[in-house]
Design a protein that fits this description.
22% strand, eight-stranded mixed β-sheet, single chain, 37% helix, four-stranded antiparallel β-sheet, 17 strands, 486 residues, alpha+beta, globular
Length: 486
Amino acid sequence: MRRLLKLLAGLVLVLVVVMVANTLTFTSKQVDVAAAEPVAIDVDAAARRLGGALQFETISHEDPALLDAATFLRFHRYLEENFPLVHAKLAHETVNDLSLLYRWQGRAPELAPIILLSHFDVVPVVPGTEDRWEQPPYSGAIADGFIWGRGALDDKFGVLGILESVEHLLGQGFAPARTVYLAFGHDEEVGGDNGAAVIAKLLQERGVEPEMVLDEGGAMVVEVVPYLDAPVAMIGVAEKGSVTLELTVEAQGGHSSTPPKSTAIGVLSRAIVRLERNQMPAELRGAARQFFDYVGPELFLPLRVAFANLWLLRRPIEDLLEDAPATNAMLRTTTAATIISGGVKSNVLPTDARAIVNFRILPGDTIVDVIEHARSMIDDPTVTIEPSGVAREASRESPVDSAAFAFLQQTIAASYPNVIVAPFLTVGGTDSRHFTDLTPNVYRFTPILARQEDLARIHGTNERVGVADYGKAVGFFVTLLRGLPE
């Protein structure tokens, strides 16, 4: 017994030594750079130009017949009028009638260019919610220190912010080290197939091989990462795919006074419950693992020890992360029942019932995996399962050990001191997915400081951006363009 106790004590000691050693070597991945020089721009004038852009109802509808092309063209003219140097000195063209592509010749054309992406289409305002807005959704009003309107965050913010920075630098006689492309899509909110995808194909045909693509994506989030007070600048290095499945059940119908054990609605409901209770497995891998590799060393000691020793504590950490929707979405292919319908009258048995279930696919999983999982979990031949709408595989993961990622991390750190920079998994979709064949270095970052309630404004009510925050974002793009490595 005494030998056994000594053996156990020895094993515990070895375990403690290994965990301590792992924690001591689990060091910060943040960079120490000098703060960027302040950028002297007229922030109020820039805010007014963004406000004016928000007045154009450049709405993407699911039904393409509802597209108001004339409004998009008027928006083009607005950009020409408000950014005269950009349109005088940069080569520019309209792609597929409504998207825009600019080319800013660099001083060293032999160097690989960069591409800055954004989009100027917006989602509709939900009918009936207009009176909930503190300022009208297409007013572009500047009030209480904010610029209000649909597109203020997603993503006329990016279009106007990039153009402001280029206009500013042109006014100083500046030319970038590398050639810079500005690619602004007109249909990102419905997939980007007629905008960004066409631009990407055009550039590929012209032999453009960019060093880096930068699109919208992760913001600098505050009070979103638990147990971390500092803002976290989240650089999307991959994004989830998506597939929507339509579940249908057909039945004989009849009078509700003599129902079967389960109506069509009951059978369908059981299928949905099975999907929700038996979701695809969660695993801390890829971009999600990289996120905690960068954030973990900045956490307080117990959590730092835990993330330094995933070989031992992976399962309890994954269980903890699954409890919150935001971190759960980083670990697995998610399941969301979003639409259900069936029945016509309270005393009539439904002859059919239908549901829509949306899955956001984790890199490493596939559309085929999701469909097979759904069929296996539902396990009911009376439920028909068919893909619906456009399905997209998850993107490839961009490297965090590239010169492009290092440059982006340094630029963020210089522009926003005291911000923790980390790669992460973008759970939504962006136009950047169309550019992954041009370069492995595709990153997604929006230079805006946001709390949880601010993130809810994207596609929601009272979308707005702070005037001062917008000015800092323009400064970020100026710093990025000034610092392009030669």
